[in-house]
Amino acid sequence: MTNATVAARRATVARMSRDGASLRAIAAHLGVGKDTVRRDLAAAKGDTVRQPDQHIATDETPCDTGRATGEAPGETPRPSRAQRVAEADAAMRQLGQAVAAAVAARPSHVIVCDTVARGWADGLRHHAAALARLAAAFDEYYPPPAEQKSMDSNNRSTA
């Protein structure tokens, strides 16, 4: 199962739970077990497994159905803010886990053929560049505190 598939399932689980569906109903809808739903809820919340009667809420506001944006009946509603937050949170968690796993695997210390090694290195550079662009977007919308900026510039000048 791909990370995107897991993230999409977890977002659906979070949305259905927030809307009041039971673990059993969510599991039946998705074709997975209740324990999978319970783990997905815990992962979305970032804590231990919840009791079956508890529901996750990723946003304090009611679920946005998309109707307020002028969408006509029959159109696919845009994802709610809470759903986007849940999806982004799940993606960031998975990113952290993937980075930790890659670091722990120490792929640069694994003896493989040159083609595989170059492929791994190229993939790493490609992903690093994409992550650098993502980090730059964060800096644009959420500028770091002034003391962080000065520390970053000092580190760059000494490197």
Your description of this structure?
With 159 residues, the protein is mainly alpha-helical. It has two domains: 1-61 and 80-105, no CATH class; 108-159. It has helices at 3-18, 23-30, 34-45, 81-105, 114-141, 146-158. Helix 2 (23-30) packs across helix 3. The longest helix has 28 residues, at 114-141. It is extended, with a radius of gyration of 20 Å. The termini are far apart.
The value of Rg in angstroms is 20 Å
Mean pLDDT: 77
Total of DSSP H or I helical runs spanning 4+ residues: 6
Order of helices and strands: HHHHHH
Oligomer: single chain
Derived from helix and strand composition plus strand pairing, the structural class reads mainly alpha
Beta-strand percent range = under 5%
Gross morphology is extended
Number of domains: 2
Q: Tell me the number of strands.
A: 0
What's the story with the biggest beta sheet? Answer: none
Low-confidence stretches: 47-71
Q: Give the distance, in angstroms, between the N- and C-terminal Cα atoms.
A: 41 Å
Percent helix, as a range, is 55-70%
